[in-house]
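Re: the pair you flagged

First of the two:
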Amino acid sequence: MEPVIEVRDVSCRLGGRTVLDHVNLTVRKGDLYALIGPNGGGKSTLLRVILGLQEIDSGDVRLFAQPPREGRTRVGYVPQFRTFDFQYPVTVEKMILSGRLGHLSGPVKRYSADDHAAVARALERTGIGHLIGRELRRLSGGERQRAIIARALVGEPDLLILDEAMVYVDIPTEAQLFDLLEELKKTMTILMATHDIGAISSHVTRVACLNERIYTHDTDEITEDMLTAAYHCPVDLIAHGIPHRVLREHERES
């Protein structure tokens, strides 16, 4: 499969601290790729690097074989939950419609019938068409996450990037969201970041563990060494209750 994301030997320092240390990552078409690691481990920074929103000190990044600022027109991005003000009095429809702003042209920017049709498709794909007129502040945690994902889908992207999309949702809702991602994977590539390894699902095709440096495996299985390297604490504490095999071998992406 052709690479959708290529990160080659990328290093990045923020505030005098190394956040990414010679990171290599390849995400291929059709992947549902999970990027796991502790808070402050560099996951959000790496996503911003991939999107061309964060400068790097060394290395190279390609998005659809283009520089990130050119390739990101084909990307739907779901930032961390805390970046949204859910008390703002706006309806689900208007919030999702705002995801079409980049498609508007001309001196007077007005939404067209095509924009509204794209909203209808995004609502259908995420299963929240019945919430179209409801205010965001009146949604449950799971409904809010679906609305945010719908906003990312309204531009009809080829790549969906999610930063901590499973935070603040209960286990049944998390399972429903993974079912949604599995369905979306049929038509797009997905890269999701999370600090919670309990969020890793059998739907995931590949896993990388990031804490300044990155460790990868070619399956959805999480290795003992990957966890130890990333979390710096006992594997049995981290892996307790996770329904995945723990492998003995890992490889550092090189």
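Second of the two:
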Amino acid sequence: MVLSRLDIGFALDRQWYVLRGEMESTKRPALIALAKVLDESQTLYAIIGGVAVQVHRTEPRTTLDIEVAVERLDMVPRAKLQAAGFRLGGRFVHSENWLGPDSVPVQFTDDAALASALHRTIDVDLDGVRIRVMGRTDLLHEKLRAGSDPARRRSKRLQDLADAQGLLEESPDLRADLSEHERAILDALPS
């Protein structure tokens, strides 16, 4: 069931790229190559962002990049990524941007707020490769945090809040795991 959700996301991604005339592939090869490198390097990681939403939601969701949380950026296996066809695009204080095979954007973050979630991932099998994905509860917390961050673009914050609301609608029991502050964020959304 989870695989079919990723397949739907990959199909939506492909349509987006085809309509723009950019390419005809999906994130699938880059995600598989990335997971192989990270597992072979014994890097503790979690796929976060839109790809994680694709795994946890039944409603289709597309995203153009792959976001990865790691404990520390110095743990990113740069040489092995480059050997697998990834190219470093830029380094920042808490993130690194890469381009994967077929120029799929990959962003690593070492955001301290995500560190404990790295130990609570779920495993998703994609063509026989283990993909470590942030768990549903941690993803909900992260989407609410990102959705209330005034430093983020408004469009990104709104998408994060929509993702959080969607996760909660599909799994209402998650509301019990929310703090009072997080519930207030959701309660403030237009009905």
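The longest strand covers residues 66-70.

-B.
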